[in-house]
């Protein structure tokens, strides 16, 4: 018995800023807890404090970088769309009545009589 599969739903767009803020806050909370309990953490496990500090720093960097990255991608997509639109209005190569010789042909000879 063959079952027909439904098509997969389209991907959802996430709110990048909210996701970054939640992750950064989670790292900050973990850092605060570890700093409060610092005296109870064995010296060999205190590297977790630095891990949380780096997590907070990377989250703050991401809050700045993600919008810059998205604007760059949007500009690039716009330029690509403009290039495609411009290419669509240009005549195809070789469709004009030019008597120029292509670089693959023997110099000094023409394909037209």
Structural write-up:
It is a single chain. This protein has 113 residues and is mainly alpha-helical. Helix content is 57%, strand content 0%. Helix 1 runs antiparallel to helix 2. The longest helix is centred in the middle third of the chain and has 43 residues, at 47-89. It is elongated and about 75 Å long. The N and C termini lie far apart (68 Å). The model has no long low-confidence stretch (mean pLDDT 84).
Task: Please sum up the structure shown.
The protein is an all-alpha fold and 113 residues long.
For the structure shown, list the relevant keywords:
113 residues
Overall outline: elongated
Following the backbone from N to C, one meets helices and strands in this order, namely HH
Strand tally is: 0
Rounded to the nearest angstrom, the radius of gyration is 30 Å
Low-confidence runs of at least 5 consecutive residues: none
Structural class, by secondary structure, is: mainly alpha
Give the topology.
Layout (H helix, E strand, L loop, with lengths): L15 H21 L10 H43 L24
Helix pairs in contact: 1-2
């Amino acid at each position: 018995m063959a079952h027909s599969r439904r098509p997969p739903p389209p991907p959802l767009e996430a709110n990048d800023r909210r996701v970054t803020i939640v992750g950064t806050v989670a790292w900050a909370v973990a850092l605060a807890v570890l700093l409060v309990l610092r005296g109870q953490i064995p010296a060999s496990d205190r590297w977790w404090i630095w891990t949380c500090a780096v997590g907070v720093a990377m989250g703050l960097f991401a809050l700045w970088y993600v919008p810059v990255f998205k604007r760059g991608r949007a500009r690039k997509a716009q330029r690509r769309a403009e290039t495609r639109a411009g290419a669509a209005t240009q005549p195809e190569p070789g469709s004009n009545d030019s008597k120029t010789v292509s670089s693959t042909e023997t110099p000094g000879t023409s394909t037209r009589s």
